[in-house]
Amino acid sequence: MTAHIIRPMKYPTDLLKDLIAAESTCDKGELKAAQVIAKWLARHGLKADIDQWDGNRANAVAEIGAGKGQPVIFAFHLDVVPAGKGQWKYSPFEPCEHNGRIYGRGAVDMKGPTAAVLWALAELLEEGFCPDRELIFAFVAGEETDSCGAKRFVEQYAQQAKEPAGVIIPEPTGFEVITSHRGILWLNLETIGKTAHGSTPQQGINAITSMRRLLSEIESYQLPGSHSVLGQGSLSINTISGGQAVNVVPDHCTAAIDIRTLPGQNHQDILDDIRRMFHRLQKHWPEFSADANVIRSVPALETDNHSQFVKNFCSTVGTEKPKGIGFTTDGPFFAQLNCPVIIFGPGKADLCHKGDEYIEITELQKAITIYKNIIKATT
Ligand SMILES: [Zn+2]
Prior knowledge:
CATH architecture of the largest domain: 3-Layer(aba) Sandwich
CATH topology of the largest domain: Aminopeptidase
Bound molecules: zinc ion
């Protein structure tokens, strides 16, 4: 019989609970969660620098090890989506442990995986581990909204001219190695008309009619190309609003579209195509007037699976082939540092952003063992 090492699981779950209770939604900001991490690291003899802006927004960064070789960055997001109107039996920001699971907003996305990496690190340090290259732990703000924290970190880091060997993002992937995902381009479309009395529509310009014409162009728009792992891009018109009263010709209509892009697709090219639609419509209907604004733009991610960093990572965790995922991460911003980006972590991705979000404690335990191997193998 093999002996099993029983870890005092109180500690990682306590860290996870403190992180959940920090309630780092976009409204409340990430400062409290950054402070939880900094305090926890200080207890383990490590220093984290908190970069604070706009009151309660914050990143935290901790570095360990000597400067030999290229650094490896572990990148986490501190923020969570709001509790929402989803069904919660458990209180989203009062974490609770039940039936071997920790419940709370962020349990799986991604405070559980964050706690697992930090515990892996703490255990290694306790065992006398001393990395022979620099390890950087970056905890960033705003991943769920505008990636402001990742952009800020990358901008600051790029000034050091210390190209990393690779970036590991411990998002929940059910322990699958992910190296690609689609990008997002969210656009707000607006058509502008002229009001008139509903009984004399010929005196006005109907913004809803203009939007109808624009949307039928948008629906027939073909996103170029396909990808061997990620398949096709997609486009969906997901909100529409316009008009003030039944007897007034509307002068304003807006619609939001969700475009999912593939690696290599330039978001500006798509925006230019849409602006060309405006010109075509204007030729047919001179009264047509429209505008498009970017709500959010995150490029697609594609890491070279033949890079040594990816190959080493796969052999450490025992995976043959990296995969793609349906959701988007801060990965493409970290990829701007000119290095491979790998997404890998415990927990089921389909629990993210839902009511009664949880992570299994056994998965956290398994993750600590695997992350210890990863940290050792990267140094
Ligand atoms: Zn996440």
